[in-house]
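dude i think i finally got it to work??
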Amino acid sequence: VYIMGKPSPFEGMIHFGLWSKFKSDLDDETSYQIDDEIFRHWEQLLLADHGNDEWLQIHRNSVSRDFGFTLTASAAGSGTEIQQRIDRYPALANSLAGLIGMAQGLTDSDNRKFTDELFRVLSRIEHLVNDSSSINDRATYLGLSGVYFILINDLETAETFLRRSLELWPSEKNSAFSQLIKLYEATGRDQELQQLRQNIQPD
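look at this
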């Protein structure tokens, strides 16, 4: 079973970037793999000049984010391997959407321990994001920065970034919402937790 263009309803998927494959051995462990030929083809599409077609740009950003996620989530072994993979795809690494996907891959996978690599990706995002970037992209960058500070155990700074993210995009769909809930639960801050849930209404 292959799925393309929407979240998987199954456990135990292999994510390839453009599509996901259901693992026939019924193993519920999710994994990520790179098809180098498809990644090279996507690099060519990113580098091609297709004018200012708005829908095309939305599509390219969406798939770039998926490819960026798969690129870092599928890496294993060392931070050096992750950096080598990023360097191998310069067009993706110079795309705001691709970099956001890379940061999400580092925070949502077993590679959360590679905080130095996450910091490098976030630094690249910081240089690209600006007031003309979408609210979701700006909020996502702030939320991912919050996760970074959680990972290095700077909870005060983490809370600041997560709150700023929610100020820009006050939605349950913003991952900063769930991260801030976890932060408050872990630190026993029941009053702030209750206030947060009251302020962010269900979508």
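The longest strand covers residues 19-22.
im so relieved honestly
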